[in-house]
Predict the 3D structure of the following.
Amino acid sequence: MIEIFTISFIVALTGALSPGPVLTFTIYKSLKSKNPFAGFFIVLGHALLEFSLIILLLLGASFLFQNLLFLIMIGIIGGICLMIFGFLTIREVYKKQYEIKFNLKEENMSGFKGNSFLGGIFYSISNPYWAFWWAVTGLTIMINLNISFQNPLGLLLFFLGHELGDFIWYVPISLFVYFGGKSLNSKVYKYVLIVCGGFMIAFGIYLILNVTIFPPSV
């Protein structure tokens, strides 16, 4: 069970570290809001949406879980996608596109600008990468970790581990920005992203080998 929690946490953290709409909104709300815990409420909204999606995935794919060919194919596709995400992360680092400076202006924000909790939901849904990740890679990891309604403790640990990966990044960032932080150390951030990209590549390879050498039972 510790394996489920740990893998879920690390995978979520590697995804959260990459810049995206939720991070941009977190920085914006932390600059504009008088609440130092804006990031906490953003993560809560994000978590509620992800919990709903996990339940929907399990309900919608439950009959497909009885098809060995589906399980193998989704495992291979999910592993390949995770490897691609890892390669793209490392490539963008070397192209010097990953820098976080906390100086967002009103005109830089588009879309929802209101409640932090609702913003966590809105900016998760508005990110096409997020939905695609869950439909393919997220589902692959759930299959490999045997996450199902028949394994409620595993399901709970998977969810908690995943949300902790988001919490441990967005909440400190929110506090850092609120209390006057201007930017992250770009060198440190880039090295962290390289490590995360390497993890995604390695874990993608593991998912592919695991599902082909040790096919899941149906």
